[in-house]
Structure formats: structure tokens, C-alpha cells
What does this fold into?
Amino acid sequence: MEGKSIISGTGFAGILSGVRRIVIAVHSHPDGDAIGSGAGLLHFIGETLGKEAVLTIPDPIPDNLSFLLEGVPHGSVLFHHENPEETVSAISEADLIVCLDMNAFNRSGALEEPLAASGAKKVLVDHHLNPDSGAFDIVFSDTRVSSTCELLYRILMETEQIGHDASRLPHATATALMAGMTTDTNNFANSVFPGTLAMASALLAAGVDRDAIVNEIYRTYRENRIRLMGYLLDKRLCITPCGVAYMILDKETMSRFRITEGETEGFVNIPLSIGRVRMSIFLREDEGFFRVSVRSKEGTSANSLAMKYFNGGGHELAAGGKLFFPADIPSREDAAPYIVRVTGVFFEGK
Ligand code: 5GP
Ligand code: MN
It folds into this structure.
């Protein structure tokens, strides 16, 4: 099946209207962009097109994003970790699947196999590098946007129903798209394009309460998260001679601070505020591997480092991956020397 790339949204509503069972899928460990675009599309399908759809999510979402799923129709969100059979059935029986904020099925964890196996027509809406176009029937892909939410906004605005008038978007869609764009730009600190500000302006004018969104996302953390952040910055932050900052969060420290995985979101960005740091790497221990986050300043490719040394990828300046032990390093204690070595090679060729 050959992928077909189109960038116009005019046909999008028609594609959705012509089918019966619609499933939306997002990537594993979903972030604000995944949940924002997923919830935004779910409300558009329900309220604008008057159809039912199901949003399938592979893992739990961080608490500060749960407001985005309030008010969705009962039964329209399925979490694989809570309800694996129903989630897999929804995907297998779908007529149309829209994958959001992932460039390939392998970014969707437990949903990967059901997505690949499903006979549904498959649509991709994404802003990552290297989309697996061959796996989809229709591909909306653009890396020159802040977020999947911005790309979806552009697509929805082009539909006949919305007709380039943001005030016709369902209020919940407008709020969710603003929220996802906000988290993927780190609240307008990076990846901001002219279209990003145009979208923000139009959504604000349409009545989105941005202050409330920012409050929900950035001012509802638990005290433990802030105390762990302080501890890591004080005791664990290392900076190599090449200007690579790294912090490694082991399991023991996570339990000492009673931290859940979603609560470390954003930690990786902080060391970039140091002048001599050009790249920041954050490792969080999981079962037999570290989850890796990489961020870089202009001129240094986080994507290329994550692809070469951390089994991952993402965007030019924001990428992620995994470091397995013992496959990549003999044991977890070898993570720090590994980072020092591979970033030395990456920057200095030695
Ligand atoms: P984060 O550090 O916030 O988890 O991820 C940053 C970016 O890298 C996101 O755009 C995300 O999609 C991508 N990313 C994170 N983990 C992986 C991974 O394991 N593989 C790939 N290909 N991309 C990843
Ligand atoms: Mn995104």
C-alpha cells in the first residue's frame, strides 16, 4: 500500500464523513500535543460532524493533562493499560484510523501491532521527521509547524464546516489545540512559526481561555516534583567539556521522592538555560533500560544523536529514545560514561 502525501485539508472532513467506525490513535507516553490533538479531533468529529469516534491511548497520561479529557462523550476514550481487549477490538474493527503525533506505528507502544494489522484506511497527521508514509493511505506531514495540534488546526480550518473561521471550531477543540501547541512549544519558547502565532491569535479571539490552560498545565504539579527537580539540579547535573549537560534519574531516587514517570516532563529543558550548554540529555530508569530525552540549541542535532546512540529520533532540536542494559551498556552504572563517550565522539570525533 503506497502512502499518498497531501497537505490540503479540504478533503479531510469528507474522508471522516464517509466512514462508520473512526478510531484516533496517539503515541506511547502521550504528551500535551498527543492528547491535545486527540481530544481536539474527537470533539470536532462529535460536535461538528455529528459522528462517534474513539480515542485510543496506549499508556496513562500525566495528571496535568487530564483536564483535556474532561467532557468527552462517555466511552469515547479507551486506555490500553486499563482496557486492552476493548482497545484492540476498536482498532481491529475500525473503518478509518487517524494516527496523531507519531511518525510510525512503532511509536505507539502496545497499539503498534493492532494498528499495523488493522484493515482500516489509515491517515497520518504528524510533524516529526521521517514519516513512515508507506504505512498510511493518506499522509498529512509537515515538520515546519510547532506541533501536531497546529497542523490539525490548519487542516480543520480548511474544512467546509469551519471555513477558515476559528469561532466555528467546537470550544473544546479550540482549547485542546491551544493546549497541545503550548506544551510542544514549551509555552512559546521554541518551534514557533508565523502560523503558530496566527493560530494562537485566532483561537484567543475565538474565546479560548489561555490563562486557564497555562494554569492547568504548569501550575498544578505536586510538591514532590519540584523538590526532585531541585535535588537533580543541585546533586546530579553534570556538564561535559563539550557542553553536554546530563542528569540520570535512577529508580531509587524516583521512589524516594515518590515520583511517577510523567512528573519528570520538562526537566530536560532546564540545563539549556546555561550559556555554555549546547545539548541536554535526561535519563530516567525503567525496567532494563533508560528512557532518554535529548534537547539541543540551534546548530546541534538532538535527532541525530538520538538516532545514532539512543535507538530513537524525533525532531531536530528535541528527540528521545531508549538506552538498554545490557544490550547497549553492560549495566546501569555505565550510563554516565556512555554519555560522555558518545557525545565526545559526536562533537569532537574522538
Ligand atoms: P520526549 O523527550 O519529550 O520524550 O520526546 C521528545 C521528542 O522525541 C518527541 O517528539 C518524541 O516524539 C520523540 N521521541 C521520544 N522518544 C522516542 C523514541 O523512543 N523514538 C523516536 N523515534 N522518537 C522519540
Ligand atoms: Mn508533537
Summary: The domain at 224-348 is CATH 3.10.310.30 (Diaminopimelate Epimerase; Chain A, domain 1). Residues 31, 107, 128, 293, 312-315, 318-322 surround guanosine-5'-monophosphate (ligand 1) (CB under 6 Å). The chain has a mean pLDDT of 96. The radius of gyration is 20 Å.
